[in-house]
Design brief:
Layout lengths: L9 H13 L6 H9 L5 H10 L7 H8 L4 H7 L2 H5 L2 H20 L1 H5 L1 H14 L8 H7 L7 H26 L4 H10 L6 H8 L3 H13 L11 H17 L1 H7 L1 H20 L12
Helix pairs in contact: 1-11, 1-17, 2-7, 4-5, 9-11, 9-16, 9-17, 10-11, 11-15, 12-14
C-alpha cells in the first residue's frame, strides 16, 4: 500500500488555519483582564509577557530577537520591567485561563467539548512530535511546557508549538533574504495579507518615518515601486521566503502524513472560521492601507 505524498504547500495551508485560532487570544478581552488582575495593564506589556513568558524573565534583547519585527525601544519600555509585576509562571497561568475563557466564548461550549476538538488536538500534537528545538528558541521554550489535559487547551497548545516552530524558521528565511524586521513587515503588508500600517505603528513601535525609511531601502533594492507596491522582483523574494519557510517547517506535516494533514486542515478551518465569525479579530487588522 502506497502513502500519498504531501503536497508542497499542504503544511503552509494547515499552519495558516492553526495559527488563525492561536492568534485569537492576542485580541481577546479575557487576556487583558487576566493580566490586568496581575497588575500588567499596558496592552504592549501584555503582548510581550504572554508570548515571552515561556522563555523565562528575559530582557529586551531576547524579546526583540525572537519576535523580530518589533522596535527595540518599544520592547525595552516594558521588558524586563514586566517581570517585576508578574513572574513568567504567573503570566503563563493567566494566559491559560484567558485562552480557556476566550475559546469557550468564541467557539461555544458544544464545540469545545466535541469529539472533533479532541481529534484535532490529537492530530496537531502528533505533528508537533516532529518539531525540532535546534535554532528555534520560541518553539523550544513552549515545547518545555506541559500539555494541558482538556482537549481544547491541548489543541491550542499544539497550535502554539506549530506556530512558533514555523515562526522561528521564518525568521531564518527573512534573514537569508536580507530583510530586517520592519522591511519584513512592509513587504508583507504590500502583499495585502499583512497588518495595516495603522496596526504596525500601534503594536510594533515603528513610526511613519521608520516606515518611509524602510520603504526607501526596499525601493533601492528594486523590491517596491514608487507606489509602495511589490515589484516583480519583490513578489519573487516574498515567494522565496515562504518557500524556504515551508522547507524548514516540513517535518511536522510529513510526520503526520498527507491524510492526517488534510483532516487537521479541515478541522482547523472549521474552528478558525467559527472564531472569525464570532468577531475574534479587528475588522481593519489586515490590508495594505
Amino acid at each position: 500500500m502506497t502513502t500519498a505524498a504531501l503536497e508542497p504547500r499542504a503544511g503552509r495551508r494547515c499552519h495558516n488555519a492553526l495559527n488563525s485560532l492561536h492568534a485569537t487570544h492576542y485580541f481577546a478581552p479575557e487576556l487583558g483582564a487576566e493580566l490586568g488582575a496581575l497588575g500588567v495593564t499596558s496592552p504592549r506589556a501584555v503582548n510581550f509577557a504572554v508570548r515571552a513568558a515561556a522563555l523565562g524573565p528575559v530582557g529586551p534583547g531576547v524579546v526583540t530577537a525572537t519576535f523580530y519585527n518589533y522596535k527595540y525601544e518599544l520592547v525595552a519600555r516594558h521588558v524586563p520591567a514586566v517581570w517585576e509585576t508578574a513572574a513568567p509562571a504567573q503570566v503563563l497561568a493567566a494566559r491559560a485561563r484567558a485562552v480557556d475563557a476566550s475559546l469557550r466564548r468564541l467557539l461555544g461550549e458544544e464545540a469545545v467539548a466535541c469529539a472533533e476538538m479532541a481529534e484535532a488536538a490529537g492530530l496537531a500534537l502528533r505533528a508537533a512530535e516532529a518539531c525540532s528545538r535546534g535554532g528555534r528558541p520560541l518553539y523550544a521554550a513552549h515545547a518545555d511546557l506541559p500539555v494541558p489535559e482538556e482537549p481544547h487547551l491541548a489543541y491550542w497548545h499544539a497550535t502554539t508549538l506549530l506556530r512558533e516552530h514555523r515562526g522561528d524558521g521564518h525568521l531564518a528565511a527573512l534573514i537569508a533574504a536580507g530583510l530586517d524586521g520592519l522591511e519584513a513587515v512592509v513587504t508583507h503588508t504590500a502583499t495585502g495579507k499583512g497588518m495595516t500600517p495603522k496596526w504596525v505603528f500601534g503594536t510594533r513601535g515603528w513610526s511613519q518615518q521608520d516606515w518611509d525609511a524602510a520603504t526607501g531601502r526596499l525601493r533601492e533594492r528594486g523590491l517596491l515601486d514608487g507606489r509602495g507596491e511589490l515589484t516583480e522582483r519583490g513578489v519573487a523574494l516574498r515567494e522565496e521566503v515562504e518557500h524556504r519557510t515551508d522547507l524548514l517547517d516540513r517535518a511536522p506535516y510529513e510526520h503526520l502524513g498527507a491524510a492526517g494533514v488534510a483532516r487537521l486542515t479541515e478541522l482547523a478551518r472549521v474552528f478558525a472560521g467559527a472564531a472569525l465569525a464570532a468577531g475574534a479579530f479587528p475588522a481593519d487588522l489586515v490590508g495594505k492601507r
